[in-house]
Design brief:
Layout: E1 3-6, H1 11-17, E2 24-28, E3 34-38, E4 46-50, H2 56-72, E5 77-82, H3 101-112, E6 115-119, E7 136-140, H4 143-153, E8 157-161, H5 167-177, E9 181-183, E10 185-190, E11 193-197, E12 208-216, H6 220-231, E13 237-244, H7 250-257, E14 259-265, E15 273-275, H8 278-286
Parallel strand pairs: 1-4, 4-5, 5-6, 6-7, 8-9, 8-12, 12-13, 13-14, 14-15
Antiparallel strand pairs: 2-3, 10-11
Helix pairs in contact: 1-8, 4-5, 6-7
The protein binds ribose-5-phosphate.
The site of ribose-5-phosphate (R5P) has 14 residues, from strand 12 and helix 6.
Length: 296
């Protein structure tokens, strides 16, 4: 029976996953260093660490301490369940001298864990986590959760992907809800500076636009897409994303830009959470299918 060691931010998700929880302690010494102690007996048992890797710089060290200690205490297997996997976007050297952090992060984590389970990792130039991670890997997809949400909440949806990378989710979701879809062209000039082109979509004027992306970070992508849709006369615009990072005031800014609804999966706790990943993650923890194709 797998024992689940949840980081504090994931306490609510861990409860819904209904997997027996391991007891551990993480606190800081007065000088800011982490103190980690495992209180449950783990020898011979598979252990899973539940830690979403948004804000990864603050969580990675305690995560490594926990994983290494689980191994030292005899856990049969250490799986990292990271509903959101950070450090996936800097996957190449865009400018001379830059660190390719996604590679270094993958090498580092792979050293301490036996397996990784995550949801919609940002695979862009790479197609599979196994290109960077040397542990067993499983990428789950939130597409079915998105389709379910749209089916329950939106009539006559027009599914829109804000950039070519989103086509993988958009196509799958559109097929599942039997709705038309379009994918826009995006050029990113900087962290908060994106250019998107929207063709004339007047033929869909009786549809409700639903923008779908894997990540909302600065929300620059969603904001630009919402503005373009409004300029074509659409008012009731929904934004759906697997991971709501919402850097700084991104959530407010997207609401102010005119998004009627902003819904994310609970891979990162946020008031916008409206799609539940617990069942997806729990099923994979209890019955891993690493050998199978990475994307579902
Ligand atoms: C980009 O390739 C991703 O799929 C998202 O579109 C992007 O991460 C969103 O970032 P932001 O909210 O900062 O525009």
């Amino acid at each position: 029976m797998t024992l689940l060691f949840a980081f504090p931010e994931q306490a609510a998700l861990a409860r819904i996953m209904s997997i027996e929880q391991g007891d551990w302690e993480w606190r800081h010494f007065p000088d800011g260093e982490s103190y980690v102690r495992i209180l449950s007996a783990v020898r011979g048992k598979p252990a899973a660490i539940l830690c979403s890797l948004n804000q990864p710089d603050t969580k990675t060290l305690p995560l490594i301490f926990l994983a290494q200690t689980l191994k030292e205490l005899g856990a049969a297997k250490v799986t990292l369940v990271a509903p959101y996997l950070g450090y996936m976007r800097q996957d190449t050297r865009f400018h001379e001298g830059e660190a390719v952090t996604s590679e270094t992060f993958a090498v580092m984590l792979s050293r301490y864990i036996d397996a990784l389970i995550t949801v919609d990792p940002h695979l862009h130039r790479h197609h599979d986590l196994k290109e960077s991670y040397t542990c067993e890997c499983k990428s789950l997809s939130a597409a079915s959760l998105m389709a379910e949400w749209i089916g329950k909440n939106i009539k006559h949806a027009l599914i829109i992907g804000p950039d070519m990378e989103s086509e993988q989710w958009v196509k799958e979701v559109a097929e599942e809800v039997q709705a038309p879809y379009i994918v826009l062209q995006k050029t990113r000039h900087g962290d908060r500076d994106v250019e998107i082109t929207l063709p004339d979509i007047g033929r869909y004027k009786n549809h409700t636009p639903v923008l779908i992306d894997d990540i909302i970070s600065t929300a620059a992508t969603m904001i630009k897409a919402v503005e373009l849709l409004k300029a074509q006369g659409f008012a009731d615009i929904t934004c759906l994303a697997t991971h709501g990072l919402f850097a700084g005031n991104a959530y407010d800014a997207l609401q102010k830009a005119g998004a009627a609804q902003i819904i994310t999966a609970n891979t990162i706790p946020h008031p916008s959470n409206g799609m539940e990943v617990a069942e997806l993650l729990a099923a994979e923890c209890v019955n891993p299918r690493y050998g199978e194709q990475s994307r579902q």
